[in-house]
Structures
1.
Amino acid sequence: MERKNEASRRENGGLIAGRNPVIEALKSGRQIDTVYISGEGGSLELIEKLAKERGAVVKQVSRQKLDFITKGAAHQGVAASGACAEYVSVADILSRAAELNEPPFVIICDEIEDPHNLGAIIRTAECAGAHGVIIPKRRSASLNETVYKTSAGAASIVRVARVSNLAAAIDELKAAGVWIYGTDAKGENYADTDLKGAVGLVIGSEGFGIGRLIAEKCDFMLRLPLRGKITSLNASVAAGIFMYEVVRQRSLV
C-alpha cells in the first residue's frame, strides 16, 4: 500500500518526485509531459529511455534547479510533470476538420514559452472553433497545470499536437491544402486578407516573433494596425484578434 506521506513519492501540483514514482508513472500509461533529470547512470538511464519512448521531453537540470522544482521533496535526482491532456498528431487535427466538414483552422505556436500565453491562446482557439493547436517539442510551453488553469480547461478539449519539427508539420498542413498565414509588421492588413478558406495561423514567440525558417514557410504575412508608441501586442492578445477575424469572415460565408 502506498504511503502518502513518503517524501520520495510526493506530488506537488502535478509534479512527481523520486525514481520509483517516476518509473511507475511512465509505465502506467499516465500522461507525462516533461522529465527533469540531475545526474546520470543507474535507474536514471532507464527513466530517460522510458521517457523518450513515451514522447516526453527530457531536460537535464542542475541539482539546485531540481530542488527548486520539487519544493524540497526527496527527488533522488529526478522528477516528472504530468500533462493535462494527451497530445495528438497533425493528422488528428485535420481529421477533426473533416469530421465537421469545415475548412481546417489550425493555430501554430512558434516557441510560445510563457504557459500563461499558451493557455490563453488555447482558450481562445477553443472559443473560436479552431480544430487544433500545434506546438514544438522544444523551446515551448507544454500542457502543464498552469496552461490547463489559464485555458479554463480548454487544454483538455482542443486537440494539441506537439511536434519535433515545426517546419515539417507546416509542410504536412500545406500538403492537405492549408494556407499558412504568419504575422509581421510589414505584412498585409489582416482585415484586408481573405481568411475564409483553410487557415494555418502562425503566432510568434513573445520576444522574437516568428523564426526565420518558419517565416519562409508562410504563404502570407498579416499585420495588425498599431496606433500607439508600443510596437507589438502580447502574443495571446494578437492571436485572439487574428482568430476572431477568421471567425468573422467565415460567418459571412
2.
Amino acid sequence: MTRGWPARLREGHVELRPLRMRDASTWREVRTRNAPWLRPWEPTTPASEQGAPWSYGAMVRRLRAEARDGCTMPFALTHEGTFVGQVTVGGIARGSLQSAYIGYWIDQRYAGRGIMPTAVAMATDHCFVAGGLHRVEINIRPENAASLRVVEKLGFRNEGVRERYLHINGGWRDHVTFALCAEEVPEGLLARWQAIRQH
C-alpha cells in the first residue's frame, strides 16, 4: 500500500478523496461535457499499442491496483461536495529518488476559481509529509495556459522543456517540467498559497 494512502484532504470547500466506483455516472457526465476543453491535453496511446478505451470501472480498478503497489494516489476532486475533477499523484519512486509527479484536470465550469491550485497544494503537502517524498514534479504542455497558471501561482520551479515527452492528443508532445522539493516549502505549500491569496 502507498505510504499516506488512502487519504482525504480538505481545505474549505475543496476536498481530495479516493475515487469511488459510485462516481462513475458523474465522472462520465463531467468528462463528456468537457471533452472539447480536455482533449488537447489528454494522454493518448500510440497507435502501436492501441486497445479498447478504458471504462471508468477499469480505470478505477487499475488505479487501485497501482495504489496497492505503492506507485500512485488517485484522488477525486470535489468542490462543496460536487465532483469537479481529478488529481493523481503518480510515478511514485522510493529509494534514493523519493519523487512523484502530479497530474490534474478540472471541469471547465470550475476553472479559474483557485480550486485547482488549492488541490495541488494539498496533494503536494501530502506527498511531502504523509507520503515521505522529497520531490514533486508537474509536466505541462507549453500551450496549456490554464495549467501553467496553476504552477505559476504555486511557485513551482521551471526546470525546462522535455522534448516529445508524452503522447498527448494523438502525438508526442513537448512538456515543460516544473518541480518543488520539500525543503523549498518548509511551511507547507498550502500555507504559502493561502498567504499569496490574502495579499
3.
Amino acid sequence: MPTLKAAIVPVTPFEQNCTLVWDDETKRGVVVDPGGDVARIAAAIEEVGITIDKIVVTHGHVDHIAGVAELKQRLGVPVEGPHRADLELIERLPEIAANYGFGRVETFTPDRWLDEGDTLEIAGLVFDVLHCPGHSPGSVVFVQKENAFALVGDVLFRGSVGRADLPGGDEDTLIASIKNKLLPLGDDISFICGHGPTSTIGHERETNPFLR
C-alpha cells in the first residue's frame, strides 16, 4: 500500500488549510483547496519534492478556490471537485473574490464534478467521495478507509462545525451530513479540515458541542 503523507500549507488571511497529500515512495500527489498565495503553495510543493497530478476541491467558497485557476495554469493539471451544486459559487468567483479583498481572481471549470458514491484517486489510493451539504450546497468529503484518513473541508472542525449562515448554507442539513455520513465512518478516522487543527471522528463525537 502507498505510504500516504500530508502537509498543511496555511494560505491567505483566512488561514485556510491548503493541503498537499502524496505517496512518499513515488513522490506523486495532489493539492487540496488552493485558496490563494499560489507562490507559497508552489514553494511547499518544491520543498517536499513531489509531482502534482491534480488539484482537488472540497467546496466552492472563495477562501478554498481563489488560487485554483492560477495553480492549474502553473502546473498544467486537471481539477476535480466539488459537487456541481457549487457551480454558482464558482461562476461568481471573480465578483466574490473582489468583495473579500482577494483582488483579481479568475474562475475555472472543474475537469470533473464529484458526487456521492464516486471515488477519487489520490497518491495511488482510492478515496470515497461523500456529498455533505450544509456549509455549502456542493461540499464533498474524501475518505481513505484503509488509512483511516479523511479530508473534510469546512464540514467539520475540531470542536466546531462549518458556518451555515453563508448563501446556500443550512444548519440542519449540515448537522445531518455530519451525523449521517461522517460519524458512522468510525472513531479511528483522523481528518484534516479546512481551518485549524486536525482531529478524529471519535474526539468530535465525544467532545464537539455542536454534535450533542
